[in-house]
């Protein structure tokens, strides 16, 4: 009998169900703790994001979290990843299959905290909000603007149908659902917060809710709800938890984001926080039986154009790198780091007697790829779509474009040379006169003026190719449209009568390119090469000799690179490679001649 009771306790700690995966459970909020089936439950959670990890690796990463000592997974759902345009949802294909992710969590004997937004931050483009909202000129988000709430209502109804049957009350792994995210850092519309919670309830969510905010009084007051647990981002000492208790003594609080690493912007050094302080925080949380969530235990990758950006003033812009390695315990390739083993060793000390953590899963095989020769090229200038006429420039969202690039073209009439000013450039532009490259402008450096030289043409052609580098995902400047969002002037004269070419550079566009063997004379070039593999494996494609652009392998967008660093290698997972012939395409905004590319086993 005593052995059976011990087994029950161990099962609850590790998240296993005694009578199968469809057993219904109860999960409740008490004043100072969580109760699972009526017994105190300490969540030791590791956060991973399905959209940032190839679906083929979901199980491996969940097993890695479990082997480190976690009993729970926390997962963001990125609204904009699932609804590409109003009413067009994808919850079935590849990384979009949220149901399959939840099933794997349960199959691996873990509980799940679901973080569905609608806003999530997460260093993800627009904080997870769909960019089609920005096609409404005066839209207000994260409040009771009816244009916004109509879209949120549609999202919640659709997602709830996917997840509601996986609540613990119905035999699934979902124990809690988060309402919005860090709202106290953005606004104070308590009506909106309550409305979001009620929308989930109306659509079948019956497990407890929680909010998450910084452990400061004004954030907690603006972001919390009366009947929701209080998450602290972060919370790792008595003072943090005391602040939460002051706001609401009737619900439990926990550390909803404990940071083992941190994000990195382009042009910075890799962020590598101190592990000693992290271990100290984890020990305090364990000793005081406080639930907590590692944000993130494994970050993954901002494939494609999904990396977000920060801005804490109107003139500041900090785009995030493609890698979301985050200096997390499980690195971008899914490998256990020294930080992982330090945390695993610490958490193992709190297990019941004779209980051991699962073995650490074997690492995914890693390969090198010899230098790849780029043998063909295509110019963006020879592959333009039909032009859209516009009196003045408009941002890409006004044309239904979510990300990528956009080209603005006009003739210079009146002033033909002098100071060209782009008001509200978002975010990086290359400027050409009669096809000749003049220079670049970078929003991150607050650059918006460039000198145009004299031209021999009667009415020179001005081309401005703009890259959107990620919608701002945090704080008050989130309304962040891409392209030229205001005007262009030359010596103070506003330039009119524009042709606009949308260039999302998506998979369909890249597949339709017309490649030749000749060298191009105007920057803005695609390069293509092929390579053969006898064996597949994870690799990093080294593009350190290239300047600024995007890489596709077998049609998969690996993300952006930029020679300002720190990232000069892009993660390419094995499922995107194949035995035999593979294809790589690189678009570089500056280079006219190709440079070598190779596959390496690690990132610098």
Question: Overview of this structure, please?
Answer:
With 604 residues, the protein is α+β, with helices and mostly antiparallel strands. It folds into three domains: 2-303 and 338-348, Glycosidases (TIM Barrel), CATH 3.20.20; 369-378 and 513-600, Sandwich (Jelly Rolls); 384-503, Galactose-binding domain-like (Jelly Rolls, Sandwich), CATH 2.60.120.260. Helix content is 19%, strand content 28%. The chain is built from eleven helices and 34 strands. The protein has an eight-stranded parallel barrel, surrounded by five helices. The protein has a six-stranded antiparallel beta sheet with strand order 18-27-19-24-21-22, with no helix packed on it. It has a five-stranded antiparallel beta sheet with strand order 17-28-33-30-31, with no helix packed on it. Helix 9 packs parallel to helix 10. The termini are far apart. The model is unreliable at 1-20 (pLDDT under 50).
């Amino acid at each position: 009998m005593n052995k059976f009771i011990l087994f029950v306790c161990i099962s609850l700690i590790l998240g296993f169900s005694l009578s199968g995966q469809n057993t219904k459970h109860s999960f409740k909020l008490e004043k100072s703790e969580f109760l699972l089936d009526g017994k105190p439950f300490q969540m030791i959670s590791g956060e991973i994001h399905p959209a940032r990890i190839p679906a083929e690796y979901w199980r491996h990463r969940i097993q890695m979290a479990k082997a480190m000592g976690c009993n729970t997974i926390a997962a963001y759902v990125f609204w904009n990843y699932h609804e590409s345009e109003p009413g067009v949802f994808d919850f079935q294909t590849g990384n979009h299959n949220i149901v399959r992710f939840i099933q794997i969590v349960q199959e691996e004997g873990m509980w799940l905290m679901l973080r569905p937004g609608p806003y999530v931050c997460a260093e993800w483009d627009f904080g997870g909000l769909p960019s089609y909202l920005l096609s409404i000129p005066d839209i207000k988000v994260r409040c009771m603007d009816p244009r916004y709430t109509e879209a949120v209502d549609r999202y919640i109804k659709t997602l709830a149908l996917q997840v509601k049957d996986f609540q613990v009350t119905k035999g699934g792994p979902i124990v809690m659902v988060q309402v919005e995210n860090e709202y106290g850092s953005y606004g104070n519309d308590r009506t909106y917060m309550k409305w979001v919670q009620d929308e989930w309830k109306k659509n079948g969510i019956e497990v407890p809710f929680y909010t998450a905010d910084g452990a400061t009084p004004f954030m907690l007051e603006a972001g919390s709800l009366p009947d929701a647990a209080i998450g602290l981002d972060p919370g790792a000492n008595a003072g943090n938890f005391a602040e939460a208790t002051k706001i609401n003594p009737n619900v439990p609080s926990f550390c909803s984001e404990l940071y083992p690493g941190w994000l990195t912007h382009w042009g910075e050094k890799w962020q590598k926080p101190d592990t000693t302080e992290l271990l100290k925080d984890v020990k305090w949380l364990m000793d005081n039986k406080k639930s907590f969530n590692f944000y993130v235990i494994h970050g993954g990758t901002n494939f494609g154009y999904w990396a977000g950006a920060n801005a804490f003033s109107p003139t500041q812009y900090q785009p995030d790198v493609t890698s979301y390695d985050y200096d997390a315990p499980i690195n971008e390739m899914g490998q256990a780091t020294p930080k992982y083993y330090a945390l695993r060793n610490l958490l193992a000390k709190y297990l019941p007697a004779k209980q051991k953590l699962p073995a650490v899963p074997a690492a995914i095989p890693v390969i090198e790829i010899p230098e790849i020769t780029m043998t063909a090229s295509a110019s963006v200038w020879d592959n333009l779509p039909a032009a859209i006429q516009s009196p003045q420039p408009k941002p890409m969202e006004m044309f239904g474009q979510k990300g990528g690039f956009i080209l603005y073209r006009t003739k210079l009439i009146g002033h033909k040379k002098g100071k060209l000013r782009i008001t509200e450039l978002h975010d990086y532009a290359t400027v050409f006169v009669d096809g000749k490259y003049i220079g670049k402008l970078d929003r991150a450096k607050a650059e918006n003026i460039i000198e145009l030289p004299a031209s021999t043409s009667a009415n020179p052609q001005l081309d401005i190719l703009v890259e959107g580098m990620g919608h701002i995902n945090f704080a008050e400047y989130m309304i962040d449209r891409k392209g030229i969002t205001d005007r262009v002037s030359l010596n103070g004269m506003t330039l009119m009568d524009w042709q606009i070419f949308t260039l999302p550079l998506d998979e369909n566009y890249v597949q339709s390119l017309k490649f030749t063997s000749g060298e191009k004379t105007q920057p803005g070039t695609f390069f293509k090469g092929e390579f053969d593999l006898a064996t597949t494996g994870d690799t990093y494609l080294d593009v350190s000799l290239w300047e600024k652009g995007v890489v596709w392998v077998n049609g998969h967008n690996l993300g952006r690179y930029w020679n300002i660093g720190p990232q000069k290698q892009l993660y390419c997972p094995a499922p995107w490679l194949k035995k035999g012939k593979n294809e790589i395409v690189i678009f570089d905004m500056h280079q006219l001649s190709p440079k070598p590319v190779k596959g390496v086993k690690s990132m610098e």
